[in-house]
C-alpha cells in the first residue's frame, strides 16, 4: 500500500512538472518548479498548488456572469468618456502601447494633485469623504485597526449617517489581522464590506499566492485617490516601532476617474457578482490647468504580463531619463535588459530603493543581478532617511507614473495592481522635484561595495534569487 502511494505521488509530481513546463511564464520559475516537483514531489506538489499558479482562474469569466447588463455598463465607460479622449501629439505617439494595455485611452480635462507622505494623503482623503454625497468606493490591500484605521472607520460611519453609500474591499491576506469587530461597525451602519478572496470557488481554492494589492478610493465618480499608502499608523509616522515612512499618493479629478472606478467595479463584480448603480458620466474639475492621464490596472488574469510590459515600454521610450522609485527591486530579465540598454544609449537611469528593506529575501536577491546593471551605467541609490515605499517613475520631462506596482515578480505576475500614468510637463516637474529631494537622502551602491562582500553572502544572494518567482 505504501509503495502504491509513493508511486502515485511520484507520478503526480511528474504530471504536474509537465504542467509547470507548459504553464510557467519564466524560464527561472520553470526550472525551479520542474526540479522540485520531480525530485521532491511530497514538498513540491502542495507548494505548486499554492505558489506555482500564474493565472488567476475565474476572474475574467466572472465578469460575464450575473446580470446581463453588467458587462454592457462597464463597456459603456469608453463611450461616455469619448468626448474627452486626448489627441496624441506626434512626439508622444509611443504612448499608444499604454492605452492598449489599459484598454482605455488617455483623457484630457483632468487635474492631478501630488500627495507626498501619509499625513497629507489621508487628510486629503478624509476631506473627500466628508464631501461625499452619493457613494464611496474604497479598496486597500492592508487595513489595520489602529488609530488611523479607526479614524477611517469613523469618517465612513459619518458618511453612512448622511445617507452616503459605502462599498469597501480589502485583501483577505494583506488584512489578515483585521478584527471582525472593525468590519461589524461598518456593516451595522449599512456599509457593504467584502474581502477580495482568492478562493471564491473550488477551482480557486489553492490560489493563495495571489494578492489584490490595489489602493483605490473613488467618491461620487468625481475624484479618486491612488498610490502606495495602506491604512496603518506607520504610514503617518505614528507607529513607534516603524521607521520614517516615505510614500506617495495622488488625487485625480476628471474623466480619468472613470478608469479607477472601472477597476474597482471589476473587482467588486468578482467578489459579489453584483454591480452597484454608480455615476458613469465624467465630471470635469473646475481648474485652469488640465492634464492628460490614463488608469492602467494589471493582474494575473490579464492575457499579457501587463505590469512588466508597462515597465519595459516605459524604459524603451525614455530618451533623456528614467527615474524609478520602488521598495522591492527584483525585476525580471526583460526589465533588467531594458534598463541596461537604456543606460548604454545614454539615458539617465536611476533606481531608488530602501537602504533597509522589510523583506530579507528581496534584499538578498537584488545583489545577485545588481553588478550587471551597474556595469551598464544604471545608478542604484539607497534611501537612508527611513523606509521607502513609494511606487513612482518619471520618463524624460513629460510622463509620470504613480501607483501600487513594485519592480518585482509579484507585482509583474501575481498581484492585482493599478497605475496612473500622467502625460503632463508641469506634473512631471513636481515629481522631478520630489525625487530630487529623495535622491538627496540617498547614497549610491557601487560595484566595489558589492565585490567586497564575503563569499558566503554572494552564495546566499544567489540562492535567494532562485526564489524570485514566488517572492
UniProtKB/TrEMBL annotation:
The keyword Membrane applies. One of its GO terms (molecular function) is cardiolipin synthase activity. Residues 208-235, 384-411 form the PLD phosphodiesterase domain. It is an enzyme of class 2 (transferase). Keywords: Cell membrane, Lipid biosynthesis, Lipid metabolism, Membrane, Phospholipid biosynthesis, Phospholipid metabolism, Repeat, Transferase, Transmembrane, Transmembrane helix. It is a multi-pass membrane protein. GO terms for cellular component: plasma membrane. The keyword GTP-binding does not apply. Its EC number is 2.7.8.-. It is found in: Cell membrane. It comes from the Bacteria. The chain crosses the membrane at residues 30-51. Its main location: membrane. GO terms for biological process: cardiolipin biosynthetic process. SUPFAM superfamilies: Phospholipase D/nuclease. This is Cardiolipin synthase. It comes from Leucothrix arctica.
Amino acid at each position: 500500500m505504501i509503495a502504491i502511494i509513493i508511486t502515485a505521488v511520484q507520478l503526480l509530481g511528474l504530471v504536474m512538472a509537465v504542467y509547470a513546463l507548459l504553464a510557467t511564464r519564466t524560464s527561472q520559475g520553470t526550472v525551479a518548479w520542474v526540479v522540485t516537483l520531480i525530485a521532491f514531489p511530497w514538498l513540491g506538489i502542495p507548494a505548486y498548488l499554492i505558489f506555482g499558479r500564474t493565472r488567476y482562474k475565474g476572474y475574467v469569466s466572472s465578469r460575464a456572469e450575473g446580470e446581463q447588463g453588467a458587462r454592457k455598463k462597464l463597456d459603456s465607460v469608453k463611450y461616455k468618456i469619448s468626448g474627452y479622449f486626448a489627441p496624441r501629439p506626434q512626439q508622444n505617439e509611443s504612448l499608444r502601447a499604454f492605452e492598449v494595455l489599459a484598454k482605455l485611452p488617455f483623457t484630457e480635462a483632468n487635474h492631478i494633485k501630488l500627495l507626498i507622505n501619509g499625513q497629507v494623503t489621508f487628510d486629503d482623503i478624509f476631506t473627500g469623504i466628508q464631501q461625499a454625497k452619493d457613494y464611496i468606493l474604497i479598496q486597500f490591500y492592508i487595513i489595520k485597526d489602529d488609530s488611523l484605521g479607526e479614524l477611517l472607520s469613523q469618517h465612513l460611519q459619518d458618511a453612512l449617517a448622511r445617507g452616503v453609500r459605502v462599498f469597501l474591499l480589502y485583501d483577505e491576506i494583506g488584512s489578515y489581522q483585521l478584527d471582525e469587530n472593525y468590519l461589524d461597525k461598518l456593516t451595522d451602519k449599512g456599509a457593504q464590506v467584502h474581502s477580495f478572496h482568492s478562493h471564491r470557488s473550488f477551482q480557486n481554492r489553492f490560489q493563495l499566492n495571489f494578492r489584490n494589492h490595489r489602493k483605490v478610493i473613488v467618491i461620487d465618480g468625481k475624484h479618486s485617490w491612488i498610490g502606495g499608502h495602506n491604512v496603518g499608523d506607520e504610514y503617518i509616522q505614528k507607529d513607534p516601532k516603524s521607521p520614517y515612512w516615505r510614500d506617495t499618493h495622488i488625487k485625480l479629478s476628471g474623466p480619468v476617474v472613470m478608469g479607477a472606478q472601472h477597476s474597482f467595479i471589476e473587482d467588486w463584480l468578482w467578489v459579489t457578482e453584483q454591480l452597484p448603480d454608480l455615476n458613469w458620466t465624467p465630471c470635469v474639475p473646475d481648474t485652469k490647468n488640465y492634464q492628460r492621464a490614463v488608469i492602467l490596472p494589471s493582474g494575473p488574469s490579464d492575457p499579457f504580463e501587463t505590469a512588466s510590459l508597462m515597465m519595459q515600454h516605459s524604459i524603451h521610450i525614455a530618451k533623456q531619463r528614467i527615474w524609478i522609485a520602488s521598495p522591492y527591486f527584483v525585476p525580471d530579465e526583460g526589465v533588467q535588459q531594458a534598463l541596461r540598454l537604456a543606460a548604454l544609449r545614454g539615458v539617465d537611469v536611476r533606481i531608488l530603493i530602501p537602504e533597509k528593506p522589510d523583506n530579507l529575501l528581496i534584499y538578498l536577491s537584488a545583489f545577485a543581478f545588481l553588478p550587471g546593471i551597474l556595469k551598464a551605467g544604471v545608478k542604484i541609490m539607497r534611501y537612508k532617511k527611513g523606509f521607502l515605499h513609494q511606487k513612482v517613475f518619471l520618463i524624460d520631462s513629460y510622463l509620470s507614473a504613480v501607483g501600487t506596482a513594485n519592480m518585482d515578480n509579484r507585482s509583474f505576475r501575481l498581484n492585482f495592481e493599478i497605475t496612473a500614468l500622467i502625460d503632463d510637463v508641469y506634473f512631471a516637474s513636481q515629481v522631478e522635484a520630489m525625487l530630487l529631494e529623495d535622491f538627496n537622502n540617498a547614497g549610491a551602491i557601487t560595484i566595489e561595495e558589492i565585490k567586497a562582500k564575503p563569499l558566503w553572502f554572494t552564495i546566499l544572494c544567489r540562492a535567494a534569487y532562485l526564489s524570485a518567482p514566488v517572492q
